[in-house]
Design goal:
46% helix; TIM Barrel; eight-stranded parallel sheet; 12 helices
């Protein structure tokens, strides 16, 4: 199994909208260039940060097509293709493979509490629609309502395309447990990036990386250099920034998009209802976040 291309820092790609709330191809391409310019290792497209459950199949195809064209093979691309029904998920999986993505990923079906055999069938059906593409299980029990268990992982390992888990559960132990089954694991919770790497995660996929990719890249370098005290100190700074991001009235991704604008990054719009945009006071918080990121960058400059 080729794992080198999955190592490192993978920002979860944000939904990009124009002023009317439609997917903006221009913004998708600008954000792709911006993140690659920050020297991230890969992109994770169409997940929670991409507001996937609020976008149509055609919109999600449009986003991925433009990310792939703009990336042009410069970084690893993982496409999250799960919808809340099997057929749409298979359509997105087949489309992702046709574009040449490195891997597809999927959460379990949400809302109905399905038995594990049904979840396994759902994932295997999606994988079968992209038979030449690696498959990554997305474990996010706090939102999906169901957690990846060891028996379910062992069942999924019978599928040779299943190579790993994007683990967004909070217990770091889950990373160790999944890794013991011979799969690669991506750390999901940004607040435990350093801990996740210490537990054996091959890298991280995170929703706040796009606002401060340099900090996560720096934290990873410190971990691999064995500079644990410095890595822990930087993680503390990251956690403080994330706490500030979440302290407003609006959705965190709306906050991050405003932070990007303040930093001189691309304007990628706001969030799609029912997610909440920023209040007037939230714009002040976004400015404070940008300042905190700037200060952290100064303190951690190589």
């Amino acid at each position: 199994m080729e794992t080198e291309k999955y190592q490192g820092v993978f920002p979860a790609f944000y939904a990009c909208y124009d002023r009317e709330g439609n997917v903006s191809v221009k913004a998708v391409r600008e954000l792709t260039r911006y993140l690659i310019g920050k020297r991230v290792n890969g992109l994770y497209v169409g997940g929670s940060s991409g507001e996937c459950i609020y976008q149509s199949v055609e919109e999600r195809k449009l986003v991925l097509e433009n990310v792939m064209e703009e990336a042009a093979g410069r970084v690893t691309v993982i496409a999250h293709v799960a919808c809340n029904n099997t057929e749409d998920s298979r359509r997105l999986a087949a489309h992702a493979q046709s574009l040449g993505v490195d891997a597809i990923a999927a959460i379990p079906p949400i809302y109905f509490h399905l038995p594990e055999r049904a979840i396994a069938a759902y994932w295997n059906d999606i994988s079968a629609a992209a038979p030449d593409t690696d498959f990554i299980i997305y474990n996010i029990p706090q939102l999906a309502g169901v957690a990846l268990t060891m028996p379910l992982l062992r069942e999924m390992k019978k599928n040779p395309r299943v190579i790993g888990v994007k683990n967004s559960s909070m217990p770091v132990q889950d990373i160790q447990m999944f890794r013991s089954e011979g799969v690669i694991v991506f750390n999901g919770p940004d607040e435990q990036f350093v801990s996740g790497l210490a537990a054996g995660a091959i890298g991280g996929i995170g929703g706040t990386y796009g606002a401060m990719p340099e900090l996560f890249l720096r934290a990873r370098r410190l971990v691999y250099a064995g500079e644990w005290k410095a890595a822990m100190k930087l993680q503390d700074q990251i956690c403080a920034i994330i706490a500030k991001m979440c302290s407003g009235e609006g959705n965190m991704y709306a906050m991050i998009k405003e932070i990007l604008r303040i930093q001189g990054g691309p304007d990628i719009g706001s969030v799609r209802a029912p997610l909440m945009g920023l209040s007037e006071s939230d714009h002040i918080i976004a400015g404070e976040c940008a300042e905190m990121i700037g200060e952290a960058l100064k303190r951690t400059a190589d």
